[in-house]
Write a structure and sequence with these properties.
- The protein has a single domain, classed as Beta-Lactamase (2-Layer Sandwich).
- Helices cover 24% and strands 31% of the residues.
- The chain is built from 3 helices and 6 strands, in the order E-H-E-E-H-H-E-E-E.
- Strands 1-4-5-6-2-3 form a 6-stranded antiparallel β-sheet.
- Strand 4 and strand 5 form a beta hairpin.
- The protein is globular.
Length: 160
Amino acid sequence: MAKIEVKLFPLQPGSLEAYNPRLARLHGYWIGKCAGRPLPSRADIEPLEMKEWLGNLLLAEFFGGIEHYRVRLDGSNLIGFAGKDRTGKGSEVLTSEEERKLIAAQYTPVLDTAQPAYFETQFVNSEGRFLREQKLLLPLSDDGSVVNMVLAGIYYREQG
């Protein structure tokens, strides 16, 4: 089993440009959708405005904690790397203990702090593929304070 490597980077407007310009633009989009509020809602997100990222987006809805979620959108590029479409599914599709721990390590701070987070990670997914991942997690809230959805921009690279 490969060691999970997770690097969390602090986010400021424009701070992602050196790591992944596409995710930097997605972060800017999310900031714009905040419109002076702490968090945008799912209703603020317009799929037609997101064509640049659509194949690399995952939208997860949470029901009270990290262990209770459902994938509402699984981008086509993500399906290609995961080997299956996770839309409508939750943690039950994660057969790898390593991947379950990774998801918890990444999403928990976003759910707890209601702040976006950027990660660079290397891990073995549930299909046994060793991946390098760049992931931006953007919290969404129906009530403006409690995070009930996370929009994730994810770019993978398979490792030898």
